[in-house]
């Protein structure tokens, strides 16, 4: 029993690596190029230390925060991730139920494998729609209107993928969306029967948000036509909160504030796009200093523990997002695994707060 228990994000990854097909594991786990960017992210997070404080009454602690004026029971949410149902059938809705329970945002990817309408209903409204600009933008703005009609109040525009980064691990396996199954993939699935049979029974995951007339999505299609004028058009079209994700340059951040966005998400896309990008956790304090204490700054990339969450909050983030570790937990033990890892992250953060003398989450300054 202990060998399948999840006591850390690394436990979830280890179990997922054993159970997932190689192609799927490397799609979730991989990063751009030689993966030095991912290593840089991890090293930068590991290099940050927290300040232990003693003899303070920390017997009552709160993990709650406020996000766009509403209470969230945790300072970390669910990062948008494509094709989550690859980790296990129904993964998208497992994440949505978690979002509803803790009143935290579930980032619904453009390339989610469950329709956006079903996810926001299951999440009881606690869902944000993540948007990629693609091609000439005609399909993009159809998705914006669909998200609006579905009840989404927050839109997250991802801007750090003008072209999809090269991730050699997934390329070696011939990973494509949708799947094209050849001899190599068939062998991979055959030696991972638990995943293969459950996926076959539930049906092959698809990109569910593109089931619209006249809209064919190509994952590799260039996204390079997006400009500041595109952002202006999107701001005019979207009445709710607009978050821009994938920002690592202070000048860009200042221009985004001037353009009227509601929040910025400091992120390197988990080092999946540009291998030579800086570690976001090192950019975060500079971004906070430049934008002042009031502007909402979010953070993702490389968070693996509750201590990582506290490091990001102490560095100036108002809120953080966790990504691939949640997929690994689902792959490892389904919804029970997801809930276990969520409890681990919560416990790690709670203990770190006690050991650093905090009863409430740090406020950006």
TrEMBL record:
One of its GO terms (molecular function) is L-lactate dehydrogenase (NAD+) activity. Glyoxylate binds at residues 27, 132, 167, 269, 272. Keywords: Flavoprotein, FMN, Oxidoreductase. GO terms for cellular component: plasma membrane. The active site is at 269 (proton acceptor). PROSITE patterns: FMN_HYDROXY_ACID_DH_2. Its EC number is 1.1.99.31. Gene3D superfamilies: Aldolase class I. SUPFAM superfamilies: FMN-linked oxidoreductases (SSF51395). CDD domains: alpha_hydroxyacid_oxid_FMN. Its cofactor is FMN. The keyword Transmembrane does not apply. FMN binds at residues 80-82, 109, 130, 158, 245, 267, 300-304, 323-324. Belongs to the FMN-dependent alpha-hydroxy acid dehydrogenase family. This is (S)-mandelate dehydrogenase. It comes from Falsiruegeria mediterranea M17.
């Amino acid at each position: 029993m202990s060998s399948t228990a999840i006591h850390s994000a690394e436990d979830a990854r280890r179990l997922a690596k054993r159970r997932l097909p190689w192609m799927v594991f490397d799609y979730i786990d991989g990063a751009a190029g030689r993966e030095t960017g991912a290593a840089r992210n991890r090293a930068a997070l590991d290099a940050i230390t927290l300040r232990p404080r003693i003899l303070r009454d920390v017997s009552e602690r709160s993990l709650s925060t406020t996000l766009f004026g509403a209470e969230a029971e945790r300072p970390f949410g669910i990062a948008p991730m494509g094709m989550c149902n690859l980790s296990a059938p129904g993964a998208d809705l497992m994440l949505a139920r978690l979002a509803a329970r803790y009143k935290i945002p579930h980032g619904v990817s453009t390339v989610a494998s469950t329709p956006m309408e079903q996810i926001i209903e299951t999440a009881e409204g606690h869902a944000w729609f993540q948007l990629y600009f693609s091609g000439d933008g005609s399909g993009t703005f159809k998705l914006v209107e669909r998200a609006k009609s579905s009840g989404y109040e927050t839109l997250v525009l991802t801007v750090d993928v003008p072209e999809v980064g090269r991730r050699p691990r997934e390329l070696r396996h011939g990973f494509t969306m949708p799947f094209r199954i050849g001899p190599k993939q068939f062998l991979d699935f055959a030696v991972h029967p638990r995943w293969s049979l459950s996926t076959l029974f539930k049906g092959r995951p698809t990109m569910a948000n593109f089931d619209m007339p006249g809209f064919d999505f190509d994952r590799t299609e260039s996204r390079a036509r997006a400009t500041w004028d595109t952002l202006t058009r999107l701001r005019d079209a979207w009445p709710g909160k607009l978050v821009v994700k994938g920002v690592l340059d202070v000048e860009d951040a200042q221009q985004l504030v001037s353009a009227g966005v509601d929040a910025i998400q400091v992120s390197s896309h988990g080092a999946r796009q540009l291998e030579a990008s800086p570690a976001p956790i090192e950019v975060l304090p500079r971004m906070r200093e430049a934008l002042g204490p009031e502007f909402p700054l979010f953070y993702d990339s490389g968070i693996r523990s509750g201590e990582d969450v506290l490091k990001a909050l102490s560095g100036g983030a108002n809120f953080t997002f966790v990504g691939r570790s949640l997929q690994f937990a689902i792959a490892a033990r389904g919804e029970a695994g997801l809930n276990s890892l969520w409890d681990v992250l919560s416990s790690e953060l709670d203990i770190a707060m006690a050991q650093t003398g905090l009863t409430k989450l740090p406020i950006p300054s």
